[in-house]
């Protein structure tokens, strides 16, 4: 399988917990890239956490791992929302609007 990229966006305060868990779940099957902020030496406030990550999927099993992590994250709280994007396709998921794995894959790869 060729490596494929999926952008994931969320404005949830707990988004970091999601992408940390996703990186652990993917292991050698993929990589989670997070922005690297440049911090001014005279900064007086904390750097905000990223609201977007880029996920490289390197195996056929990688999307299943991504799906499971996303499903677990949005199921944990009704406020959790993720937007998954690939090429020109963008899909929002939440606990109330989480499709099954096959349908989500087909929507993203269509």
Main beta sheet: strand number and arrangement? 5 strands, antiparallel
Provide the structure class.
Answer: alpha+beta
Mean pLDDT: 92
Uncertain runs are none
| Count of discrete alpha- or pi-helical segments spanning 4 or more residues | 3
Radius of gyration, rounded? 15 Å
Structure summary, number of beta strands? 5
Indicate the overall shape.
globular
Terminal Cα span: 17 Å
Instruction: Give the strand order of the largest sheet, numbering strands 1, 2, ... along the chain.
Output: 2-3-1-4-5
The H/E string reads EHEEHEEH
Q: What fraction of the residues are assigned to beta strands by DSSP?
A: 25-35%
Q: Helical content, roughly?
A: 25-40%
Short description:
The protein is an alpha+beta fold. Helix content is 32%, strand content 25%.
Descriptors:
globular, alpha+beta, 25% strand, 5-stranded antiparallel β-sheet, single chain, 110 residues
Task: Describe what you observe in this structure.
The protein is α+β, with helices and mostly antiparallel strands and 110 residues long. The protein contains three helices and five strands, in the order βαββαββα. The chain has helices spanning 15-26, 62-76, 101-108; strands spanning 4-9, 30-33, 52-57, 81-86, 89-94. The chain has a five-stranded antiparallel β-sheet with strand order 2-3-1-4-5, with helices on one face. A hairpin with a 2-residue loop joins strand 4 and strand 5 (89-94). The radius of gyration is 15 Å and the shape is globular.
